[in-house]
UniProtKB/TrEMBL annotation:
Matches recorded under PROSITE patterns: CYTOCHROME_P450 (PS00086)
Record organism: Lentzea alba
Family (UniProt): Belongs to the cytochrome P450 family.
Protein name in the entry: Cytochrome P450
GO molecular function: heme binding; iron ion binding; monooxygenase activity; oxidoreductase activity, acting on paired donors, with incorporation or reduction of molecular oxygen
InterPro entries: Cyt_P450_B, Cyt_P450_CS, Cyt_P450_sf
Domain of life: Bacteria
Length: 339
């Protein structure tokens, strides 16, 4: 346990697991709260856009969470996810041959897969990616007021687009939410997080895994073999997960690793495992365990296996890339290669 920048950092695996398992003592209310307080000018823009993130999934510790989670989980059943494998492989094959595996492959593939799985058609993927990457920086970045003002219109536009699609019943997900009696405000809040987390974190996982795999020539040669890609993905999740932290609030005074932590304290939970420990919490734990874990694992394994099979001579070039480095998310912004 360490106290840094006004937050308690929890690193012990057993402590992190215990915190995630107890949403009554350790509230998820701050899971989507902006890391950098929103400046008044940006806040006014959000108010004009009628932006809100009511408790739905990641930030919901109330009784409504279970029903909303069941509804969304129906789109991520094992059979639906498994049925997506041929489509994932086809998308990877279409994207071979580029010089930057992030820009040319990992950037849009997870978004396309997610939209298809959720039954959302006619989505402009470049616009969605701009909205979602900007939202990640807005809410999880240590950014200036000026940068907030540069990003806030995209945040508001994304939210308004979701509200419009809900009212138009445009897509299977929005129809399911409306039929279940979920309000427009709650649906937009739920989908705002789902459409970001459901593909941005997978782009990050693919980018991290591809770069790390290409750093080991012997591993790259083995990746097409049965089970190797799946095992490697698990190792990346354990020691190099792109979702590096998550947050909670203490509802009362608690003791973690022998340290007394007051009520109302913000906790930053470290999700990565250790080199000599097979356990990890890359997808969380308990009632808020990531609904897209199976899909992310599948996309990563299929991508690695397919690229290694068709591009055995691929190798890394160039200097150390720029990294996405937010409170909860970390990944290389480029993976430059030659053949």
């Amino acid at each position: 346990m360490q106290f840094a920048d006004g937050r308690w950092v929890v690193s012990d695996y057993d402590d992190v697991r215990a915190v995630l398992a107890d949403p009554v003592t350790f509230l998820p209310d701050n899971a989507l709260t902006a890391v950098t307080p929103v400046a008044p000018a940006a806040l006014r823009s959000l108010v004009r856009a009628r932006f809100s993130l009511p408790p739905t999934l990641a930030n919901n510790g109330s009784a409504s969470h279970a029903g909303l989670r069941r509804l969304v989980a129906s789109f991520f059943t094992p059979s639906r996810v498994a049925a997506a494998e041929p489509r994932i492989r086809s998308l990877v094959l279409e994207r071979l041959g580029g010089s930057d595996l992030v820009r040319d492959l990992a950037w849009d593939l997870p978004a396309i897969v997610l939209m298809e799985l959720l039954g959302l058609e006619n989505v402009d993927i470049p616009t969605l990616k701009r909205w979602s990457s900007g939202s990640l920086e807005f809410f999880w970045g240590n950014i200036s007021r000026e940068r907030q003002l540069e990003l806030v219109d995209d945040v508001g536009d994304f939210h308004q687009w979701l509200v419009k699609r809900y009212h138009a019943r445009d897509g299977e997900l929005f129809c399911a939410l409306a039929d279940a009696g979920v309000s427009a405000e709650d649906s937009a809040g739920l989908c705002y997080f789902l459409l970001i987390a459901g593909q941005e974190t997978t782009t990050q996982l693919l980018s991290t895994a591809l770069r790390r795999a290409l750093s080991d020539r012997a591993l790259w040669a083995r990746l097409p073999s049965a089970g190797v890609a799946e095992s490697f993905v698990e190792d990346v999740l354990r020691t190099d997960t792109p979702v590096v932290t998550w947050r909670r609030l203490t509802a009362r005074e608690v003791v973690l690793s022998g340290v007394r932590v007051p009520a109302g304290a913000e906790l930053v939970l470290l999700l990565s495992g250790k080199e000599n420990d097979p356990r990890h919490l890359a997808f969380g734990y308990g009632r808020h365990f990531c609904l897209g874990a199976g899909l992310a694992r599948l996309e990563a394994a299929v991508t690695l296996r397919t690229v290694a099979e068709h591009e055995p001579s691929l190798r890394l070039v160039g200097d150390e890339p720029e990294w996405l480095n937010l409170l909860s998310f970390r990944a290389p912004r480029s993976v430059t290669v030659v053949r």
